[in-house]
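ARCHIVE RECORD
Type: protein–small molecule complex
Small molecule: magnesium ion
Source of inputs: curated submission
Record status: active
Notes field left blank by submitter.
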Amino acid sequence: MSAKKTAPDSLRNLKGIGQKTEEAFHRAGIMNLRDLIRYYPREYDSFEEPVPVGRCVADIKNAVVAKVTSRPVVRTFGKKSITILNLQDETGTLQVNWFHMPFLRNTIKIGVYYVFRGPVIAKGGRKIMEHPQLYTREEYMKLTGQMLPIYPLTAGLTNNMVRKAVTQLLEMQRTEEEILPDTVREEEGLCEINFARSQIHFPENSENLLIARNRLAFEEFFLFLLGVERLRAINDTTENHFPMREVWETEDVIASLPYKLTGAQQAVWGEIEKDLASKRLMNRLVQGDVGSGKTILAFLAMIMAYENGFQSALMVPTEVLAVQHYQAFTELLEKNGITDLCPVLLRGSCTAKEKREIYEQISSGKTRAIIGTHALIQEKVEYEKLGLVITDEQHRFGVKQREALAGKGYPPNVLVMSATPIPRTLAMILYGDLDISILNDMPAHRLPIKNCVVNTSYRDTAYRFMRKEVEAGHQVYVICPMVEPNEELSCENVTEYAQKLKNVFGSEIAVEALHGQMRPKEKQEIMDAFARGEIKILVSTTVIEVGVNVPNATVMMIENAERFGLAQLHQLRGRVGRGDAQSYCIFMQGDGKKETSERLDILNHSNDGFYIAEEDLKLRGPGDLFGVRQSGIALFQIADIYRDKDLLRRAGTAVKDLLELDPDLELPQNRALAKALQEYLSCQNDDIEDINNI
Ligand code: ADP
Ligand code: MG
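STRUCTURE (tokenized, with ligand):
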């Protein structure tokens, strides 16, 4: 057998990584060494100076040093056991509990100092440390001051595996080429790339971490904005091959709607119509909070393109959303007697045969509108006359994807729609290549959603409330963070939760589970049944987060709300309050933490996405670097447009200055940068999270 040659960038070059481990890395999206070095920690565990017993603080992790003066006591309950040690010194008392570790009774030595490190809770006036790690003083001394990375993980991948792999990679001393020009680095006071890479993984101290993070965030913005500038240049110079005129049919469709367009919808439709009918290509971003009614604008634009003889494509991030748009669009066309537009639904889960047929219909021009997931741009779809491309929920759709579109044949008109609340000034930097429209009012007759933040003791009340709403003819969403039970994370999962609710509600109320790991067909059947009102309670992961529209649903209950970012919670909440009935959102807080309550309270008091993002940032403060990524914008790995808005502005200025001197990046000192930009723009799909699988 001939030995297979290992690619220089393969993970297999690291000691201890065989096929199985490699697969685990692949599942986390780490395909090679390049990805590994960019797989940044989620947070860090820092071993703080241990304190005496009386100084430990409830609700957080503490390291306490104390001399053990009595033997631990073991209590057993059936198969379970708990080992209890009471610590006391002149500063106070502390109870320490371990679960299922009775052997500790014999290992802990009386008269010896130990460091106990674990979370402390306050219970009935006493402080209890739960299941701490145990160190001798000497062991702990060695660890003090260190910050160890904690990585985001997937099944089969442990933190230790990633730590070891990254350590090795850093030790292999692969020196990476600097892509930021020296002048930019000097002016901005940014550290060198190899320092940044090592300090982001294993920071020597928190100052270094900050320096490293700053540099990496700046670089992300810098490359992104270079891409934006390039697109702007392309937009300004490309000819419009799809001249359109305004048509009556769109007016008829508007008149046929069961509602009147809001003032904002009318204004923005006016802008879109004018763009499409102008000599220049349209490149427009429509920003509007969840529920502001963006979809109809997309449909109108598609009908206008059709009436002018052009094809259009509508891209969305999930299959569930693609199907929903397809169905709504088909219905709208039927109602208006538009028969030969023949839209098709194209998605990743189509069989090869189905795809071939669809491609045929697209390339022959039989179909005039294509609705689908990002598969639309990923595959070799040949359009007959693609005059308009619309992307919905564009926060998952970055400059790379826009570039890919612009690069295909004659560039089409582009409309991007987003619910991400970005202040106009930031949007102008991030989307410098686009004109911006804002949908700033909500359809009339909408009652604001009523919110509450509760703890798990409220569940039964919540279930009674859900029953009442279902009996009144409405429907309910329940969101859980996980698909299946997980030993390491104690939070609710869709599979068990749906079963539990089936028991709670009995056979007369239909409860079903939905998550991204189901087969697409099964997923679809469930979504359809929910949309038809047959399923009353849908227990789901965040797979329904984006765009799903079932106006009859009036209750959204989110379990383990603490595990989601505020922007994401706001999106989830946007699934209700889409009809005329009063809607409710229940945030179920699974941890008892005060910070969480404060954070969730922001949502409790506002339904305004923009306000939420700003308040959230204030609460987190500048020190919290790696909290749950709040903005919901998956464009950047490490940078956060809210937290780093100054950095974003500075990167914007630096890009402009650089391009003024060297518009085509041809100077020798910018060669590495030009190459990096090309690479950045060519790996066009890697920042679209595969949210279909959550
Ligand atoms: P989003 O901006 O979140 O994509 P949608 O386009 O899905 O919002 O619209 C949300 C709901 O509001 C849909 O049921 C849609 O039919 C309805 N809708 C849209 N515009 C109006 C309007 N002007 N008046 C009343 N309902 C509307
Ligand atoms: Mg939408």
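CURATOR ANNOTATION: Residues 206-237 form the longest helix (32 residues).
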